[in-house]
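ok so for the tutorial part 2 we go from a plain amino acid sequence to predicted structure tokens. step 1 is just haveing the sequence, like this:
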Amino acid sequence: MRWQGGRFVPAAGSEGRDKTMAWSILQAHNTSGSMDRLAVRFDAMASHDITYVGIIQTARASGMTEFPLPYVLTNCHNSLCAVGGTINEDDHVFGLSAAKKYGGEFVPAHQAVIHSYMRERYAAPGRMILGSDSHTRYGAYGTMAIGEGGPELARQLLCKTYDIAYPKVIAVYLTGAPRPGVGPQDVALALIGATFKEGVVKNAVMEFFGPGVASLAMDYRSGIDVMTTETACLSSVWSTDDTVKEHLEILGRGDQFKAMAPGDGACYDGLIEVDLSAVEPMIALPFHPSNAYTIREFKANMADLLHQVDVDAAEQLSVKGAPSLTKKIVDGRFHVDQGVIAGCSGGTYQNLVRAAEILGSHPIGSGEFWLSCYPGSMPAMQELTKRGYISTLMTAGASIRSCFCGPCFGAGDVPANGGFSIRHSTRNFPNREGSKPTDGQISYVALMDARSIAATALNGGVLTAADELPSVPADPPREPYHYDDSSYRARVYYGVGRPAPKEELVFGPNIADWPQQIALPEDLLLTVCSAIYDPVTTTDELIPSGETSSYRSNPIKLSDFALSRKDPQYVPRAKAVLAEERKRRAGEPTEALAGFDPVKTGLGSLVMALRPGDGSAREQAASCQRVLGGCANLAQEYATKRYRSNVVNWGMLPFIVDDLADKNIQPGDRLYLPGIRALLEGEGEELTATLFQGDAQSPLTVKLPGLTREERDIILAGCLINYYAE
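step 2 — the prediction. this is what the tokens look like for a chain of 726 residues:
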């Protein structure tokens, strides 16, 4: 794999930029009249049951009366109702009532993973789809799909636009064909490992084409494509060919096909060349998909690499004295405890076919190792059943589960304490497998491809690359498949374009409105309530996944979990500041404002993190801070555009501070921002603040680069809901 930055860099507005597939799709959906500053309207949207309640509540509070575009509400995250009493199913009942009232499409729990459903029903060449899940990627179908926080979906429901500067476009040129035993996750992990740490595709569109595309079946392409999220890119799009055409015909949507490819003379902001025949089976060690190695390299350096995981666990999870993973090396072989093939990346038809073919009827054994398989949709499960693959997997001892995303975020198949799980899923962030290090629990997830997971299962849990087997089935460029959507027709509510305003929304006791936020004061005095010096801070660390997702429809209850695994003192610190701010608003004296004008100066909290926002699109990573009185983030840079957008849409200031790591900012420090409202009312982009650290004080330059007029007005109003109310 070879990265060549700037190989085809055009001058601004020069010929060639308009020959890319990305340009043609964005131009067709842009309403601004300028390709430099886009105002995009999407063809369809999708949300799951962690996010759709908040989105609909936001849009409803801002005046929405019906869904103005196809909006699909799936139920693949909060599907298990064992946590939180009735509140998960209460959200599902609310979602169905909203689909009826506003005219949407409702997919009941266990029917499909959100992205499997959108591939089958909506993705097609030239389209744009917006989703409230970071893995909203349908590029293999020629669709440019983007995962964003809930407020951006609320904007579309209010007939507003998605506003961004024209992004970089990076060419990904594929040659060759994968070796037998090398799957889409292997290609994806190699690509992530080569790009993420250097940020070479951050907030860019990755455009896939080249002779290697023809060697890949649709599921294979989608398996690579969905993982592009982990490179921190904005979106992706692939050239389309007869494979796409035939697949759309199988799905009953052949009329939606059109051929797409870069035009002659297309210019790009960089080039990544991938020789598919050179990719080997891969493993991404905890705690990030970019921590990627070939399995061959891992086996040659197991002790050193596992020792580094031990070190990372102690530093990132604050776990001291956990059993070393090196103890899982026995007689030179590494033993794992669990395998999982699941979700939008792993649970595809082709992956489970290959896993079944590799396992055959060979039992995985009655030892510690166990294997779970989650098909991504009911049509895929029906076809796997009809062709006997489900029976094969079950005969081998695999547990077959429903269409559910839980293993990707810690709500299913949580390993035992000290356990090591290998998963064909999307992420292996800290705690993503569901453990609770603060309670003395710790377990680990490594990402691998379904083929190597099956090979490992075949060997009773001894880590094995699929290409180590004496023989391994190859992946054909066209996987035989018959699509039967009878399960959808029996259960899905199809209400797009048919709103019923007289229908009543059904509210469960946990569904709550967003608490009211106030407009930005003239000056701010902010207290640092958490300071995180990790190289990257994920949204999982800002608001944990797993069982906390049951409270996503109750902003106040959910806020109690903010940074709970990363910095358990954050919530009490922030609440103490919020209590003083409430005194100020009530006209009561507060010592926190001694020496400051209480009429002009508002109190609030802030989170300092060097590079916050990698990972999930969940808006709650920002909204929980706001509910607790948060007014700003301090960062050297933001890991993703979507997290910065969430910060802005919830009325917080997305500050940038140069050389932030050298400032030694700690919890309890305070930052005074005189004239902050005037700065946003004008066009200024930086302010000299005063940093109070104990008895010392010093100037600190905070920057707000690239804030648009609308973003300024949202922050001035206090949040997006207030902005629309005005």
